[in-house]
Design the sequence.
């Protein structure tokens, strides 16, 4: 089994710019934080994120300029409101949104 394993950095390196990336977790719970930070560290661009309900994960990727499109039902910090970087990017047209509730 060891031969089928790769490091997180190697796994993220296999994701090309512009790829569709589905992210687990729901709002502020169980998001893959290390993978999100590795996407940013490697300078990924033009990603198409798919998420049921995002929060910090989507907001930080958008803020880093890694995202071109988001498909999600909601992106925000629950009772604190919409994710600010995400909201600004969608309102300015920098990121497109396909809202699916």
Sequence:
């Amino acid at each position: 089994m060891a031969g089928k394993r790769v490091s997180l950095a190697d796994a993220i390196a296999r994701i090309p710019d512009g790829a569709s990336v589905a992210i687990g977790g729901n709002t502020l719970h169980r998001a893959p934080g290390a993978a999100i930070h590795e996407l940013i560290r490697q300078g990924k661009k033009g990603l198409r994120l798919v998420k049921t309900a995002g929060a910090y994960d989507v907001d930080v990727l958008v803020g880093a300029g890694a995202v071109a499109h988001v498909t999600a039902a909601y992106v925000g910090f629950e009772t604190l409101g919409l994710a600010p970087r995400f909201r600004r990017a969608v309102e300015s047209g920098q990121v497109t949104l396909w809202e699916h509730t």
